[in-house]
Amino acid sequence: MKRYRRYIKPYWKSFVFGPILMVTEVVGEVLLPAFMANIINIGAVRHDVPYIIGMGMVMLLTALVMMAGGIGGAYFSARAAISFAADLRRDVFRKVQDFSFRNIDAFSTGSLITRLTNDITQVQNVIMMGLRLLLRAPGMLIGAVIMAFVMNPELALILLVVIPLLAAAIGCVIRIAFPRFEQMQKKIDALNSRIQEAMVGVRIIKSFVRGSFEEEKFARSNGELKEAGLAAFKVVILNMPIMMLAMNVTTLAVVWFGGRQVLAGTMPVGDLTAFTTYIVQVLMSLMMLAMVLLQSSRAVAGLKRITEVLDTEIDLSDENAARKDAVVTQGRIEFQNVSFSYYNDSRKTETGTETEAETKKEVSARKVLSDITFTIEAGETVGIIGATGCGKTSLVQLIPRLYDVDEGSVCVDGVDVRDYSLRHLRDGVGMVLQKNVLFSGTIAENLRWGDENADMDTIRAAAASAQAANFVSSFPEGYETNLSQGGVNVSGGQKQRLCIARALIKKPKILILDDSTSAVDTATEANIRKCFSQELKDTTKIIIAQRISSVMDADQIIVMEDGRIADMGNHAELLERCSAYREIHESQTNREVSA
Questions:
Q1: What is the rounded distance in angstroms from the CA atom of residue 481 to the CA atom of residue 479?
Q2: How far apart are CA 56 and CA 74, in angstroms?
């Protein structure tokens, strides 16, 4: 819990004042029955109206003070809990932003959303409830028990029987409910993932008329959550009947034995009324404590999941970087005997160790890239081509260090990428990924992701180079046109060109285009390449493509097969000596002729 103290420190006054102000309610709760007993025992018996009015005014004043304390306590408790949750949510979100791609792969998107919303909200609610009841429930319990024993020690012995039995019953309920709450949170994860997938792919679902299929999948996830929720809450709902049974049985016992004392003349009627109230207060305070504990069991399950995110070790950082001040100035790239796999843990033997043969076999079977060696000089244009799944994207993701190599090294300007600070390295690399993502906001705001200080002249120039200026100008609001989430109100080709413009505004020394012109026509693509050759002469350009026409003018073309470099050279050289390249060229040429 030391981790979470820093979320309390900035708001310590609210964490202190909230419970303290709630004490006023406790004092009032304990005093009011005694005042009422005096009205009955003294005022009513003696027919002393002034005494009754005076004591009534004291009770009214006490109630007003209780109300002020309750409102103040509720305000400070809410302020403390909401502030705690906001700061915790900020840090969890910041932690997720620091995740490497490998870290992100370990959590589903739905799970991270649940942890940032539902789990933290559960913690917030428990803190709010806890601060309001932290002193009130125990204070009421202790105060009511003391007053009960002071008023009638013999009758108060009933509490010594009821309280332990009630505490044991509540403990059993909580023990059974806790693991069920953990399971319920996992089902919420699954449902959130299902919803997100359906919402993102809603256009695909409609185009393939798969609405009923997705509804069935959603119904399964929703049904599993319902069952998990019912399994948890059918235990929780036992809490209230147990409490009410204990309250009614105890009240009945007090009235029975206390009534006999009243008839015997050993206990005033007013004391019996007050004693009954104190018994109810004792049981109500136990009920409030049970509610806090039950909610806490759910919050603890959520807090455990939040801690998993905060405790995740970032496997890719610049903490040990030897040259944090270095920046990319030229864009020369060198791969030296690089091998890479997405899952690089090895299979263990029964003794917990691994044999060399097993390790080699396991790693070899999982390698995405194997023994990659090549050099790209600054300012060169390099094409990468190969069959789907041959490792093209994995290769370029190692340059801005989205993943780390397993073996060998990747150097930029003669410096190992692991020795740069991540910020300086990625500032020098512009990347247009296979999946083009735009964010809600205007076109200009999206393009300023490349440079938040870019003026409109820079934005227009980048859009022109990416062949996006014409279609942007055709919109009534131009660069102030609002894009929907994900940029769904522009076509695939338009989205690609906007993403290219966004990368150009960054003015990187290395520009990576990962199949980023697949949705544009060949004429537009040719114009984009022409602008690159004229305006980005000093920028190293890496173009991943499926079409040979996209890379045939490159200084070098890397042909990849099964995670290895099959050959490397210019278009003419590869046509002459590389059968794989020649096969791709002939298949595409034949298709064009047939078309």
A1: 5
A2: 26
Over its C-alpha atoms, the chain yields an Rg (Å, rounded) of 35
Hey, what amino acid is at 159?
Answer: L
End-to-end, the C-alpha distance of the chain in Å comes to 68
SS3 53: helix
- Taking the CB of residue 275, how many other CB atoms lie within 10 A of it? 24
User: According to DSSP H, which parts of 466-521 are helical?
Assistant: 469-474, 492-505
Give dist(CA 528, CA 499) in Å, integer.
13
Closest CA to 331 of 557, 536, 540: 540
Structure tokens at 520: 């544009």
Spatial separation of the C-alpha atoms in residues 531 and 513, rounded to whole Å? 14
Residues 6+ apart with CB under 8 A from 81: 124, 125, 127, 128, 131
For 496-524, the pLDDT digits (tens) are 889 889 989 988 999 999 887 777 778 88
> What share of residues in the chain are helix, strand, coil (percent, to 5)?
65, 10, 25
Tracing tokens 């801690």 back to the chain, one arrives at 307
Residue type at position 443: I
Name the H helices within 507-558. 522-535
User: What tokens appear for 189 in the block?
Assistant: 């994860």
The residue among 424, 401, 223, 432 whose CA lies nearest residue 314 is 401
Contact 441, 481 (CB under 8 A): no
Name the H helices within 106-152. Answer: 109-114, 120-133, 136-151
Element (H, E) at 216: helix 211-236
DSSP helix/strand/coil, 58:
helix
Q: What is the pTM of this model?
A: 0.70
Residue 293 has pLDDT above 80, yes or no: no
